[in-house]
Amino acid sequence: MSVWQRVLGLARTVIEGVVFDEELESIVVSVRPRKRSRQRCGRCGRRAPWYDRGEGRRRWRALDVGALRCWLEADAPRVSCPEHGPTVTQVPWARHGAGHTHAFDDQVAWLATHTSKSAVCELMRVAWRTVGSIITRVVADGRAAHDPFDGLVRIGIDEISYKRGHRYLMVVVDHDSGRLVWAAAGHDRATLGRFFELVGEERCARIRLVSADAAEWIGETVADRCPNATLCLDGFHIVAWATDALDIVRRQTWNDARRSGQPGQAAQLKGCRYALWRNNADLTGRQMLKLAWIAKHNARLYRAYLLKEELRACFAVKGEAGIAILHAWLRWTARCRIPPFVTLGKRIRKNLAGIEAALRNNLSNALVESTNTKLRLLTRIAFGFRSPEALIALALLDRGGYCPPLPGRP
Ligand SMILES: [Zn+2]
Predict the structure, then answer these.
(1) Each residue of 68-86: pLDDT tens digit?
(2) 89: CA distance to ligand 1 center in Å?
């Protein structure tokens, strides 16, 4: 193997010559595939008869050599593939249709998940949209090599907003591998249906647990597509319902105090929002004092607060003990005479099977939430990609386990 072959990390390739191009201020390396790698269809890799010279010689960007840009140059003839018709031949150094070598693609993909947008563009001397198309093809390759839908048993479904909350991505994670399995633009029945379509009937039948929020269309789609799966309603979303109910009670109490001419009371209540919102264990000293003030001056609001905390306790305790607390909580709400919590009790009762399943199987969307936190970060990085596809590719690259190692590293 020649020094140049090693420097460029080229396999199955013959180096014909190396020149310095004054005009481009670049190194240009003439190459050709080894004999056994020649005359193969660029799309399927099968040997095929010669068709024509194509568009003659073409160039691929390779990794810089020292401080200099480097290009590979080779003929790009076409073969007549029985399946794909006249197609440019496969080359060992680059993906079909790509203008960059494998090593270049891999380094860009690695950098995109490990450093900032401007650093990737500056270092690799490429535009951000080129980064988008590179990671899209790296992920497509990875997914073609290993089917991401094999062996799914416990999955989580969630949504994440991007473009300042106007658009949604639907995401599916594998609870067992911890990986992001799939993401698509949209958040509705049809989008979720497309996911199960890709997974296929046979593999859908092997899915046992699905965690999701309580949207009816998710429940119905899962029941329809995964005959052996139990739906687990995510505790995070259920507790959020209780927080909403509590906020309604707080606003009512505040309005009542204002209207009945108790401005002092009203002002105090206005500042209580965060003390009521937060988990009890996370309260600051000041917030605890606020809570003590509520307990003393407004028994009804304090009861609403306790109801919220008790519902949260179900998900902290989990298992049969958590379910027992949940049932006691339901009896409590039934006679609490605080309308928003009476309504919440009814809503929980309606979704009881899914909530009990979540407690029994200890399955929550916590993994999805942590994925979403990372995705939100990526959304900011990916700002400037024109399509959600590039954002999805970046998400899969990072959270789906498709990020390649740096070129030449094990
Ligand atoms: Zn072909």
Answers:
(1) 999 999 999 999 999 999 9
(2) 9
- pLDDT 10s digits, 222-261: 999 999 999 999 888 899 999 999 999 999 999 988 888 8
Centroid of ligand 1 to alpha carbon of 61 (angstroms): 25
Instruction: Answer yes or no: is pLDDT of 274 > 90.
Output: no
The reported pLDDT for the residue numbered 279 is 80
pTM for the whole thing?
0.82
DSSP 21-65: ETTTTEEEEEEEE-GGGSSBBTTT--B--EEE-TT-EEEEEEEEE
Task: Using CA atoms of 279, 176, 196, 372 in order, give the dihedral in degrees to the nearest 10.
Answer: 40
d(CA 219, CA 39): 52
**Of the candidates 409, 410, 397, 408, which has an alpha carbon nearest to the alpha carbon of residue 111?**
397
User: How far separated are the first and last CA of the chain, in Å rounded?
Assistant: 19
From 368, 389, 391, select the one nearest 117 (Cα to Cα).
391
Tell me the mean pLDDT in the region 132-156. 93
User: Ligand 1 center to residue 85 CA distance, Å?
Assistant: 7
User: How far apart are the CA of 83 and the centre of ligand 1, in A?
Assistant: 5
Centroid of ligand 1 to alpha carbon of 81 (angstroms): 5
Would you kindly state where each structural domain of the chain is located, as residue ranges? 1-99, 100-230+364-410, 235-361
- CA 79 / ligand 1 centre spacing (Å): 9
Å from CA of 39 to ligand 1 middle: 11
Cα–ligand 1 centroid distance for 37 (angstroms) = 14
Residue 44 Cα to ligand 1 middle (Å): 4
Distance 48 CA to ligand 1 centre (A): 8
* CATH number listed for the domain at residues 100-230+364-410: 3.30.420.10
pLDDT at 267: 81
